[in-house]
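Field reference: sequence -> structure
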Amino acid sequence: MRLLAYIPQIRKAAKDENGASAVSYMTWSLFLLANISTVAYALVNRGDRGLALCFAANAVCCFIILAVAFWKRRGHARRLRCARPVTVP
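Structure field:
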């Protein structure tokens, strides 16, 4: 169920025309690190591959959100640079 909750966020970021400005790099990076550390905990301390797989999938979704936001922000910045009027001195 938790993996399905990422889909609306990914979709919203991908459709955003303002460079996915509502996506916080800091927040999603912390979520990514938390999921990665849980994968390590599950493998090292618990030996639970199922738990590790579940949190690895969550980490992948967090990474996708960060990647989409990065991609959208670069495209948005490029469009803004191209839209600026050229001033002649």
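Note: The mean pLDDT is 90.
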